Amino acid sequence: MDLTGIPVIDHHVHALRRAHPADAMAYRAAFTESGDPLQLRDHVPHSVYYRWLLREVAAALGCAPTEAAVLEARRAYASPAELARVLWPKANIATLLFDTGFLREQMLSPLEMEAATGIRSFEVVRLEALAEDLIAESRTFDELREAWRAAVGGLRAGGAVAAKSIAAYRTGLAILPVGADLAAAAFRPGRRRLASKPLLDFLLWEAFPLLARQGLPIQFHVGYGDADADQRLANPLHLRGVLQEPSLRDMPVLLLHCYPYVREAGILAATYAHVAFDCSLVIPLGPAGAARYLAEALELAPATKLLYASDAHSWPEGHWLGARVYRKALGEALAAAHRTGYVSAGEAEDDAAAVLGGNARRIYGLA
Amino acid sequence: MDLTGIPVIDHHVHALRRAHPADAMAYRAAFTESGDPLQLRDHVPHSVYYRWLLREVAAALGCAPTEAAVLEARRAYASPAELARVLWPKANIATLLFDTGFLREQMLSPLEMEAATGIRSFEVVRLEALAEDLIAESRTFDELREAWRAAVGGLRAGGAVAAKSIAAYRTGLAILPVGADLAAAAFRPGRRRLASKPLLDFLLWEAFPLLARQGLPIQFHVGYGDADADQRLANPLHLRGVLQEPSLRDMPVLLLHCYPYVREAGILAATYAHVAFDCSLVIPLGPAGAARYLAEALELAPATKLLYASDAHSWPEGHWLGARVYRKALGEALAAAHRTGYVSAGEAEDDAAAVLGGNARRIYGLA
Amino acid sequence: MDLTGIPVIDHHVHALRRAHPADAMAYRAAFTESGDPLQLRDHVPHSVYYRWLLREVAAALGCAPTEAAVLEARRAYASPAELARVLWPKANIATLLFDTGFLREQMLSPLEMEAATGIRSFEVVRLEALAEDLIAESRTFDELREAWRAAVGGLRAGGAVAAKSIAAYRTGLAILPVGADLAAAAFRPGRRRLASKPLLDFLLWEAFPLLARQGLPIQFHVGYGDADADQRLANPLHLRGVLQEPSLRDMPVLLLHCYPYVREAGILAATYAHVAFDCSLVIPLGPAGAARYLAEALELAPATKLLYASDAHSWPEGHWLGARVYRKALGEALAAAHRTGYVSAGEAEDDAAAVLGGNARRIYGLA
Questions:
Q1: Which of A208, B8, C22, C307 has the smallest CB count inside 10 Å?
Q2: pTM score > 0.95 for this model?
Q3: Segment C276-330, tens digit of pLDDT
């Protein structure tokens, strides 16, 4: 199936940096999750994704398919955003939902992104970044708690379309209700980095009912998506306590990335009406296997539960190629499902439209 | 490979309800593991299985392929059993092994099933249901223990061909030997629901040697198969303590469902002579991926270790389509294995016969 | 892709036994991980690998494709090594790295292997076997510790090209730094078998810096590879503490086997420059799925991170067929990746050469 004509909503993406990469190592760093300089130097150039990316960028910019030529050709554009204006129209991207809590100072804001690219942009607020800002400003735990409740309670009014939690790579997805006493004992004024499990879990359980009241979705980082993550703690099955809580059914839960726990995420999405998921990051990082991940994702979970995302950041190549790899893989997965005889041609078309945009429109309430 | 001519033994199935579904929601509920009303209302109609099922039932009953038309056409039959008499002959089902511990009052008994359908039926006794009956009748822990040992010790004589445990979705598969004191302390006369880990684990370890003495197989629910299950506790690797116990090698162990832990179940079946497994429930619930699960199941484990089951319940559609999906997927998986060159044509035929019936006949001692 | 012309380095293999198998059961035992006599008797003959192996050996030796005929035909050769001289030239094996800690008395030494087969052979020292030798000779914990540090510190000088740990099937891969007091308390002079977690973990953390100083790689048994292993403890994600330790980055880490945790191993190899992995044992034991495991292995991890190994032992059939299955599967996986369009023909060729030998040459410093 050819899905190039269907515009995508990328429901989990990061902004472009203000300036071009300083060198090849900085360029490569956006196309791997490894932060290890030796991995960047010796191994990333031998990854399927990076090799293919160089060929594609070279073809788009009209230069030789080498890293040096690509880096040189990119410099003809004043900034990453200028390059995006060349590459992104090829990707038919309708809407972007930005996590604004990652590398904040070096990144363009959603407003700047929209101005530079003409693509409709929305903000997703990273709860841990918000909490760390408030911790820095709070002298006491009660002050923090009050500020937190006010901030989380006002997210929808402030224009956010979702919250996001990176608990998976701080203290894990087994997020437990915690007494205020325990959280207060873990609070240290001035200690900015939020790495205390009682404190983070407490703040999240404070936030959940406020999100539910606003009908605001929460995105959870799951599985492969950050070298910081202990993957044992990033299994989405650990979210069971949150997902089973009857009072939180009005808080849509989006499981991001999910690899290698795609089947587990599919089970959760097949079980709970308020749970949906994506296969970002491993698509496009593992492009040769992308159709397989999507076949797994769609095998149990209804097609109303899978979303598109790239998790791209920094340079515009990722946003562009993410959409390309995903559309191609989804077309292959749906064609294969159609060949089994269990999916009709019309259903495959409906499913493609749902996954590439319809589900995100419904869950985030986008017009 | 076309396997339609091979009769199947469905070694893990539930009975039909006495009456037709009250409405569309009740109809849908048998074709998903979700108990969430909103999942039933908004998402199940977009699942691969349910959409395909409506088309197949419509074709079989000669009505339009819509849910409303299907529900209307079904009403021409006096009961689910009457409908089964139309659908089941298309599925070439030789024998059914019934778990009689699920929704007991609303379901036909194996005897009634056999009378209504003419298909040979055997009983599998759900140990937790048996225990709960005895707990309700026991005034003391010693009374319970004595009644339990008598009941379990008499299962074979009472006509059961196997026992079944749903420990996976009560207190988990890490079933540990427990002292009687600890179990007794957890016993509460009159508290029917068996959700205490010391008490359930104790009763199971009391039962295991009695089952071994009778050579009676035990089925364990594993992995995806109930919304109640915490999937972290339903991994079959947790059964290691039971499987390693030398004195229990005469108790055949059947791992049911297994998805997403198909590889783990295959490892156990490749390691222990007394362990076998199936891929029920995800087949037929995830039909487009069925050939893949079976390829995984058959990659390490000998073909003498995989069984057929549908885990269908309530309406006769599941029993019928389960056999159809499974035969088609098994034929594809074996044909693909043959194409690799590692499986001869004759071996693929032998394996099909073993998986669809021979293994169940051997393990359950069916004539 | 036809890779038969590329010589392989088998970086994880065991030696041949001195004498032929006593009977069919002893023959079968080398082609399964099960130690269960009933599995050997009733099920191994129905495994894909064993059935195919009999056909291949029969064709090579010119006898009927039955077990009895194969066992008879093998007796025409004076020893397993004599048979190897017939079979191994068909496998184009360049170099073998031997774990010499398994069934030591019954096996040929690397020197004997090289003399008998003409294939370049290197030694990998199994740390637990080394420790057990030293424990048997030590009267006190301090004596053991000193002897251990001396032995491990001298591995490179003694000719070893790597160390190997089987902690996964003793006390698990969550190998933790342990105080000397705790380890000393677990030391019992004369108790040969090393099954104490504090003692084994302590010895390994003593060894790691010494290996890093020598730049000597360590192989970790991971996942499916021994019936002894509790697979819950054999997940490579448990190694996180070792892999994150900055001072150990000069100790290359090789994850052996990895199935069913192939995706998890791929994530680690995509994250840490000093981590690489293989898919041994499940290739060739699960030959019909081999191309799928390799596709998974290569989907995220750079091609510089995957190695070839057979994990064969005892009879020469495994070393021979291991190389055949692996080459065929790798050729199929790379051809499939090329068909997706993400891998060029030249890259697929480069990757094949890296996986079959180049990566092992680089990591082990072989000429």
A1: C22
A2: yes
A3: 999 999 999 999 999 999 999 999 999 999 999 999 999 999 999 999 999 999 9
Determine contact, residues C366/C360, Cβ cutoff 8 Å: yes
Query: What pLDDT, on the 0 to 100 scale, is given for residue A33?
Result: 94
CB contact under 8 A, C295 and A282: no
Percentage of chain B lying above the pLDDT 70 cut = 100
CA distances from C111 to A178, A238, C77, C117 (A): 62, 51, 21, 10
Question: Are the beta carbons of B59 and B47 closer than 8 angstroms?
Answer: no
- DSSP code at position C281: E
Q: What is the mean pLDDT of residues C179-196?
A: 91
The closest CB to that of B231, out of A267, A295, A305, belongs to A267
What stretch(es) of chain C map to CATH 3.20.20.140? 8-20+78-364
Please name the residue of chain C whose CA is at the shortest distance from the CA of residue B359. C43
Amino acid of residue C85: R
Distance CA A168, CA A175 (A): 9
A226 has pLDDT over 90: no
Is residue B58 within 8 angstroms of chain C, CB to CB?
no
The token duo for B349 is 């035929």
- Contact yes or no for B285 and A300 at CB 8 A: yes
Q: By the CB < 8 Å criterion, does B331 face chain A? A: no
Interchain contact A296–B (C-beta under 8 A): yes
Reported in sequence order, the residue ranges of chain A that DSSP labels E, i.e. its strands, are: 8-13, 93-99, 120-126, 160-165, 218-222, 253-257, 275-278, 280-281, 306-307
CATH architecture, domain C8-20+78-364: Alpha-Beta Barrel (3.20)
Q: Do B289 and A299 touch (CB under 8 A)?
A: yes
pLDDT at res. B261: 98
Inter-chain CB proximity C271 and A36 less than 8 Å: yes
8 Å CB contact of A295 and B286: no
**Whole-angstrom distance, CA of residue B143 vs CA of residue C123:** 63
Chain B residues with beta carbon closer than 8 angstroms to that of C291: 340
Q: What is the pLDDT of residues B159-191, one digit of tens each?
A: 999 999 999 999 999 999 999 999 999 998 878
Residues of chain A with CATH 3.20.20.140: 8-20+79-364
Query: How far is Cα C71 from Cα B211, in angstroms, rounded to an integer?
Result: 39
